[in-house]
Amino acid sequence: MITMFLLSNWQVQAQHCVWYGECGESTKVPGKKYNCNYTGPPIPLGQEGDELLTELCPGYNYGNQSLCCNVDQLRTLKGSLQLPLQFLSRCPACFFNLMNLFCELTCSPHQSQFMNATQFTPDPDPKQANKSNVVEVRYYIGQTFANAMYNACKDVQAPSSNVKALSLLCGKDAKDCNATNWIQYMFDINNGQTPFPIIPIFSDVPVSGFTPMNNKTYECTEGLEDGSGPCSCQDCAKACGPKPVPPPLPPPWTILGIDAMTVIMWISYVAFLLIFIGAVLGAWCYRKRTIMSEYGPILDSNNPLSLNNDNPDQDASCCETLGERFENAMRLLFSAWGSFCVQHPLLVILGSLIVVAASSSGLVYMRVTTDPVELWSSPSSQARQEKDYFDSHFGPFFRTEQLIITTLIGSFIIIIIIMSLSQVLDLQLDIEGLVATYEGENVTLKDICLAPLAPYNNNCTILSVLNYFQNSHARLDHSIEDEFFVYADYHSHFLYCVSAPASLNDTTLLHDPCIGTFGGPVFPWIALGGYDGTNYNNATALVITFPVNNYLNDTVKRGKALAWEKEFIRFLKSYSNPNLTIAFSAERSIEDEIDRESNSDISTIVVSYIIMFVYISLALGHIQSLRRLLVDSKISLGIAGILIVLSSVASSLGIFSFAGVPLTLIVIEVIPFLVLAVGVDNIFIIVQTYQRDERMHNEELHQQIGRILGDVAPSMFLSSFSETLAFFLGALSNMPAVRTFSMFAGLAVFIDFLLQISCFVSLLGLDARRQEANRLDIICCVKLPEGQVEKTDGFLFRFFKKVYAPFILKEWVRPIVVIKQESLPLPHTDSYVLEYFKNMSTYLHTGPPVYFVVEDGLNYSSLEGQNAVCGGVGCNNNSLVQQVYSASLISNYTTIAYTPSSWLDDYFDWVKPQSSCCRYYNNTGAFCNASVVNSSCVHCRPMTASGKQRPVGEEFMPLSKYLHFTPLIGHAAYSTAVDLYPDNKGVGATYFMTFHTILKESSDFIGALKMARVLADNITQSMDHRVFPYSVFYVFYEQYLTIAYDTALNLSVSLAAIFVVTTVLLGFELWSAVIVSITIAMILVNMFGVMWLWDISLNAVSLVNLVMSCGISVEFCSHIVRAFSISVKNNRVERAEEALAHMGSSVFSGITLTKFGGILILALSKSQIFQIFYFRMFLSIVLLGAAHGLIFLPVLLSYIGPSVNKAKVFASNTRYLGTERERLLNY
């Protein structure tokens, strides 16, 4: 009996309530109410309460629905749980467990078993005088239940913010959240939702007579009884299986523990040395036994090949004969043309001027491209096409204005005093207040900024820590303190906000919001820098970012943005604060700096060209005596030659400008250098050959110059045409900068050649007549008296002929030259932008955003289409969101930093019938805002089993309302992420955004692009629908994916063109062409070695220089090889010596000394572009070209040069038979 009485008494006790209904206003949380103290039995709910109970507490059934709550309490519960509902309902098990916690607390008929009201206050309402408020309650919760609820929810993602949901619901970062502190935060009055303290007590055993609430829970891998499936892998780590493991890095390729390439290179080098030394020794031993000139058979009258034989050309090969005839045809053609130009100088000069003027007139249509995208990315490239697709469907990526602020003190946040933060806020407010002018109209930041909630909220997006204080001095200075202690201030608010940046109310005594004035969160990894891990408290830099709208085709709006950015840069350049160090950049900064660097060194470039011009003008003259200084000088001819070079450049620019081809700064800066190199070389060859020549008996001036042109023009044509063809073939490159350079350079070089063999030859004839008439240079009207002139060779020619050439071709010097040459290839900055890049590399912790774009055509209104993309319940394990999430787990390998924000998953959460977000007026069908309290507002989807499922078919298109009428979630986060069809008939292209990890070096950016494309390809295969990644830097770094291939292709094509042209124009001498090609290839290999030593990266600029070096190398090689091939000396050594003496001196005095003097001035340049890519590379080109052309090539020819062309020897002997030149030939 006693037992039965106790059981009965316990059951009666178990059925009584702790509270029922709502009473007075909470004094601690305005707008919230206390529950009324009530210890009676549970009370049945009405019909409206039943509907709310079914919505809020699924599966919650206590038979007759007699509960300890009424409709008002259920409404309050629903309002308080909207944020958890928005995020945690993605995982049914998590949400079920959470609602169990709150439903038991609010309505359970067994409240008295696990709840104890400990504090009460009388209701101030006179009508409720008999009631009291419950102002504190103890809630006994099973530790097992708490742990199970936390475990089911800890991995749930918040798709719109790329973070875990608990980071937004726990009052701290998800990694610091656990079962107990999460529940404690939800029941803390400081969260702004709980009207009175609810003290959770965790235990699995009875405590003080109370039995903890330990209801059944579900794991995230379990489905619910209502048919809801298990949580997705993205929201439940247990559902994922093992964490993905990145593939191991390939081991380094070694041989005997040494780098394999080093070993192979050394083995190759040693093998070459052994073979070469063996060949030299063998040849030396052979010559010791029998010495015979290669011309022996030709000179021996008893030999059928002898010149004295009755049939001298009977054994010349077909190729030799063809080559001699081709050579003779060119010689006769150029001789006749040269003679014509000297005879009719005015006609030729006037015709040249007309052609140059007509071609150059196209410069009025000249357009200079400084847009980096246009410079480095081909319109047909993958990255460019993907960028264009992104821009056309979602609008161009916003423009970014960014500051990185540091102090001279250590940690920015802990040590720094409030005054410095106030100074940063003042700076930020000053920037917000900047006013620029565009076409007479004032432009402010509000006119151009990104305002995602407009027109509901027109505040600009400012990603700054100061937005935790709503950019307000009052909020920054807000503190709770007394005379002894500071209880809460800016620092405590900061510490809270970095853990919960989307919070509307911090848990400190301040109760200030963290959300930015623009209506969105400011994530700490975007606004802070220089911290370790997630220890934001140790940040040493503040990062302030102003996103500005970009415009694809609206030039007026884009002009306004550019004008404001210009004012932004001007302001920050002039801003000074001794406490702050500021690095900054605007969207236009790169383009501005390209212009600035090009313009800042104009004086250096001008000095460089003046030095080259002065040298050319002075060096062309061959002064016989001091008395004849102004007669023998050729200043006017040198200036004319320079003007011809510049005219050819202007003509090339004009012709292509006529065709609408835009110029680039590379063209303007590099082509004059290139054409001057080629042109000067040809000028020196023509003039110095004339100076060394003796006029033959009965030969007039026009015939002499014609004959000289016939001798040297084929060599000039060989080099110029080789370069022209090589450059034009280089225009096949996909890189716009390389293609444009190649086109302009090829045409300029060829026009320069045409002007030199016409206009310059005519000018040379006029100058020769002036000199013969003893008239002064420049002042040609003044004439010196006649006098005896003894003609002598120039100093440089005598040096090369008597000293240098014999020395370099000595028997013991030649092997040393070959050995040394083969061993060679072994293996500014006042710009504010440069300072910004240094700080960005040092301080930033988040890389650029990356968008995974799903192209148009996927059916999002079908379950199959949804499952292929989404990351929530029921989605495919290899869906887009899931694959990007998996990649983020191994971010060190994939460079994907976070889970992607998913408009589709957020939309499913928004449209759920449990949410109050998606509602409409049942009488009009108009959209009903979530804040409206009206009985006619009904949910978009019914609270039924089918209504709780995802919308499909026509039910899917409330999406348009989600994107346009829900500013805090849909519009703010995804207004541009979905490209809707006209009239909202369907969904077109969409994107899912995440971030790369921090990228510092070029290799990081290249690797990020590669990995993003690999990931997108995997997604494409699994979805059977194209997905591609897009980030703003892809168009710039894509060139590096193929730069090695493009370099190999361009240089190989150029070498092939040089080989073919050289073969033909040297009279089909194949071996000569091989030697030229080998020498140029060696120069290029050495250029790569210099680039490695000088740390010059291989990119579009350096590739342009390599293509140019290929062309300039022809000047160093082809003239000497041709001079060798037509020489009729006795053996290879003598032929090489003659070629080096005659052509080598011209090459040295022309291209080598001219360019060397000009290049040295570039060392004074402040521009890094000029310092690295022009001074260093140009200097290397000249020095390596001279070393190979004037040292290595003659030695190589002396060993393996082509044998004499018999037909050419016979023709030369016949041509000069009976003249004074016959003596020279026989000698």
From TrEMBL:
Which stretches are transmembrane? 263-286, 403-421, 602-623, 635-659, 665-687, 744-766, 1048-1068, 1074-1094, 1106-1126, 1146-1165, 1177-1200
Q: What SUPFAM superfamilies does UniProt report for this protein, alphabetically?
A: Multidrug efflux transporter AcrB transmembrane domain
GO annotation, biological process: cholesterol homeostasis; cholesterol metabolic process; cholesterol transport; intestinal cholesterol absorption
User: Which reaction equations make up its catalytic activity?
Assistant: cholesterol(in) = cholesterol(out)
* Location of the protein in the cell: Endomembrane system
Per its UniProt record, what Gene3D superfamilies does this chain match? Multidrug efflux transporter AcrB transmembrane domain
Domain of life here?
Answer: Eukaryota
Q: Which GO terms describe its cellular component?
A: endomembrane system; plasma membrane
Q: Which UniProt keywords apply?
A: Cholesterol metabolism, Disulfide bond, Glycoprotein, Lipid metabolism, Lipid transport, Membrane, Signal, Steroid metabolism, Sterol metabolism, Transmembrane, Transmembrane helix, Transport
Q: Kindly indicate whether the keyword Glycoprotein belongs to this entry.
A: yes
Under Gene Ontology molecular function, one entry of this record is: lipid transporter activity
- Please state every residue range assigned to the domain named SSD: 601-766
How is the protein disposed in the membrane? Multi-pass membrane protein
Q: Which residues form a coiled coil?
A: none
Family the UniProt entry places it in: Belongs to the patched family.
Q: What name has this protein been given in UniProt?
A: Niemann-Pick disease, type C1
Query: Which species is the source of this protein?
Result: Myripristis murdjan (pinecone soldierfish)
